[in-house]
Each structure stands twice: as structure tokens, then as C-alpha cells.
Amino acid sequence: MDVLATINDLIWNPMAYLALGLGLFFTILTRGIQFRRIPDMIRELGAKKDTPDGNSPLQAVLLTLASRVGVGNIAGVATAIYAGGPGAMFWMVLCALLGSASAYAESTLAQVFKTKIDGEHRGGVPYYVEKGLKAKWLAVILATMILVGYGFVFPGVQSNNIAQSVNEAFSIPLWATAIFVTVLLAVVIVGGTKRIVAVAQVFVPFMAAGYIIATIVMLAANVEQIWPTMQLVFSSAFGVNQVFGGILGAAVAWGVRRAVFSNVAGVGEGTFGAASAAVRHPAKQGLVQAFSIFIDTVVVCNATGIMILISGLYDVADENGNLIFSGANGIEAGPGYTQAAIDTIAPGIGPGFVAIALFFFAFTTLIAFYYIAKTNVVYLFRGRAAVVADWVLKIGMVAITFYGSVESPTIIWAIGDIGYGSIGWVNMICILLLSPVVYTVTRDYDRQRKAGKDLAFNPEALGIKRAHFWMQDHTGTIARAKADGLLDDNR
């Protein structure tokens, strides 16, 4: 276990600053598009898809939120507070605000370089690495890493937390929960993409709304503690708090680590759902995906952190594992912190409420993980090999879901962190190299929005090569744009 922890520190400590720096870079490059285009984000959530195939912008973002809103929003926040103190919450939110620009960038790239396979819009990390960077070899490596991670590793983190929280709340054996979750997952993933999207559409809004309501009740019951809690977070975030001032580095590292684990901005997870949307301009879905970062981290993760900190029922440890603050009364860092916090306003309700919320959060993440892994199967394999690989994926995912439910949480979390961090390093560097494309597409979007006419995307006119989906004029938008005088092939 010490070896896994050391590897994690080597990966994540420097990547915390890379993630913050990358978010700041894309914020400057796009002139703060995640802030100045918020009205566009909200408008696009209600937009219809532009073609019969593909998903609507809302369906695509719900598919992405299904993967983003998971155990990181409950258990991940608790572990960030345990290892980084209350100040980790500040860095988590800051990482999300900046990281939403990174999410915009990678999701826009996913739209630019997507393709159409068997009637479905497919795209994501390997597609824009191959077409945008002309690095087929790297695309294959990344697709393999993502397939292994999302198909055979990361599902264990989700199922482990479901089983642990259900056991804590209802004393149901881990193996019983493991059987239930794996059977339910098998039923959904065998049903294909349409069933996956349908489940995400129902579950994601329901679970997020219920969780936010609980937070509002918690704040109302402890209104006098809101300002002291905010002071605690800010003083801890900048190393001036008497108790937590000595772990400033841990606050930054763990705040960013858990923000990235939760919203995966820059890791590439959201690119696969983003590419599935049928839109008339890549930036439109990039904006919607950026908005999902706000929902995931600024709203849901922050809700968890506020409930935990206001209750005071948490521990904080230094890098050697020595407690510098003890308030958890023996509760292990994870869902138990949130369960105990909710119990302070509704005695006896906390464990059950969190267990149910965590089930919905984690289960929708599991089905979204399958979609992500399947997209990489489609990229790597063709014909009969693709059919065989898909069944191997389904069987392997069900197996790791069962195994993860009964394995030690510490080991499962450590392995998951290594996987996310490894993919994140490579993808962040790739989207940085592709930043000229992001800049060009953003500038084109702003120009067309200013003109006030219907949006269209002509990559050839913008000097963007290998954007084959758009050059085939699937939506007819190029022809309409030329007729409207929005596009000029000679400029």
C-alpha cells in the first residue's frame, strides 16, 4: 500500500499545478468563455439536436454528468478534507472554475474531430489525438489506457463505495450488494446506448436535486455557522489558520486531486459524451460540457463539503497520518462523514439517505463508464474483433464491479487515482498542443454569435484539417451558412 501511495504522490502532486495552470491557460485563451458565455450554456441545455442521429445537447451533458457525478462527490470530498483540511474545498472550487475552460477545450476538440459509426456520433480523446496531432500511435495507447481504466479498473471504485455505504446504513453484506449491483449493471449495458442515455436522463436530475435540497436544509438549520465555516475554508486555503496552516501544500494537492477525480476536467472523460451530441457548431457542446463542471464541483461537491464542515464531524491528518484535528468520533473518512453530517439535522436518516444518494451517483457513473469504454472499443477494433472485444468488456466490467464491492476501499481508491492521474497527464498535454484549434473554433463561434445568424461550422475555411465529419456536411449547416454569407471559403 505504501508503494501505491508513493506512486500516487509522484503523479498527482505535480499534476495538481498542471491542472490549475492548464485551466488558467484556456481561460485566458478563450477570454473566460466559461464565464462570459453562461447565458449560452443555459440556452443550449434546452436546444434540440440538429439531426435525427446523435444525442441532443442535454442528453449528451446528462451522459457526461452521469460519469462525473459519482463517489468523488461524496466520498472523494471527505477524503480531501481528511488529507488536506478545510482549505482543500477552496482549491477544489477554484480548480473547477478554471478547469471548466479545460473541459470546454477538450469537449470542443471532441466535436471537431468526431466521426459517425453505425449511425452514432463517436469521438473523444483518441479521435482528436489521431486527427488533430496526427499521432495514431499515441491515440492507440490512450484508447487502450482508457478502455482498461474505464472498463476494468475505475468501476471498482464506484461499486466499492456503494457496497460500503449500504453496509453502513442497512447492515447488508458486501457480497449481497455486489450481486445486486452487478446484475442491474448487466441488464443496462446489454441494452446498448439508448438504454444508457435513457437511464442517465432519469437518474441524474433526480439524484442531484435531492442532494441539493438536503444541503439547503442543512444550511437553514445551521445558518449561524455559515460565515465561520467560510472563514475556516479561506484561512486554511492560504495557510494562515492556526490549526491547518502547516498543511497548505496538502490542501492544494488534495483539493485539486479530488476536483479532477470528480469532474475529470482535462482527463478526457467528458469528451466521449460531448462527441455524441448533434450540434451545428463544436463550441456549442463545449459550452454545455463546461457548465457540467459547475454542476459537478461548484454545486454538488461543494454541497458535500459544506455539510461536513458545518457539522464538525471530520478528522484531518498530516502527511504522516497523525491527526491534527479530530471530530469524527472514529468514523472512517469517506461516505461516513456525510452520513454523520446529515444525521445532525435528521437523526437516523443520514446513513440511509447517503447510501441511496451514493447508489444513484455511483450507478449512473458505472453505466457512463461502459459507454466511454465501448467508444474506445469501437475505435480500436473492427468487425468480428469488435464484437468479441465488446463482450469481453461487458464481462470484465461486471467482474470488476463485483470484485470492487468486496475489496478494501484503500486499495481500490489508490489504484483508481493512479489510473486517472496517468490518463490525465497525457490528455492535458495533448489538448495543450491542440490549443490553436480551440482558439480558432472559439473565435469563429464568437464571430458568428456577434453576427446574430444561425451557427455553422466549416473547418476547411478555418484551416482545420481532418475534421471529416463536418466536411461531409451531415447537418447541411455549411451550405446554409454560405447562403447566409456567414462563411467565406477565401478568407
Radius of gyration: 22 Å
Element pattern in H and E? HHHHHHEEHHHHHHHHHEEHHHHHHH
Q: If helices are DSSP runs of H or I spanning 4 or more residues, what is the number of helices?
A: 22
Overall geometry comes to globular
Report the end-to-end length measured between terminal Cα atoms.
58 Å
Low-confidence stretches: 474-491
Topology, number of strands: 4
Task: Tell me roughly what share of residues is in helical segments.
Answer: over 70%
Q: Trace the largest sheet across and list its strands.
A: 1-2
Structural class: mainly alpha
From the structure above, extract its key features.
two-stranded antiparallel sheet, disordered C terminus, 4 strands, 3% strand, two-stranded antiparallel ribbon, mainly alpha, 491 residues
Give your account of this protein's structure.
The protein has helices at 2-29, 33-36, 38-45, 57-68, 75-84, 88-112, 125-132, 136-152, 155-170, 174-190, 193-221, 226-237, 248-263, 269-275, 282-311, 335-343, 350-380, 383-406, 409-433, 435-451, 468-471, 477-484; strands spanning 115-117, 120-122, 315-317, 323-326. A two-stranded antiparallel sheet has the order 1-2. A two-stranded antiparallel sheet has the order 3-4. It contains 22 helices and four strands. The model is unreliable at 474-491 (pLDDT under 50). Helix 5 (75-84) packs antiparallel against helix 13 (248-263) and helix 9 (155-170) packs antiparallel against helix 17 (350-380). The N and C termini lie far apart (58 Å). Helices cover 73% and strands 3% of the residues. With 491 residues, it is mainly α. A hairpin with a 5-residue loop joins strand 3 and strand 4.
